[in-house]
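Lab notebook: predicted structure, single chain.

Context: the supervisor wants predicted structures on file for every construct in the current expression panel, including those that have not yet been purified. This is the next one on the list. No modifications to the sequence; it matches the entry in the shared construct table.
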Amino acid sequence: MDEALWLFNCLPERNVVSWNTMVTGFLRNGDVERAVELFKEMPQRDSASLIHDDKLDEAARIFLEHGNPDGGEDIVSAYNALIAWYGQRGCIERLVFFLT
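Prediction complete. Output recorded below exactly as produced.
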């Protein structure tokens, strides 16, 4: 991930794909702290920025805590995304537990 971060930092212009790739890379490698740091720095973020099967609860927590700084995705859309994430993986009970 160090090389990927170096390349990311060298990019003259970053877009949502490059940001999401880095956040996902850190999550997949178990570095939730760095994923959160990058997520907070993203100029535009949405619930899709954090989709990762192995870290679903962590991704949901991060998104609910930090959301979109521009308000581009309202809370209804965020909750719909969470329901879809958990539902597609057959984990609705975890979602209910997580949100209560």
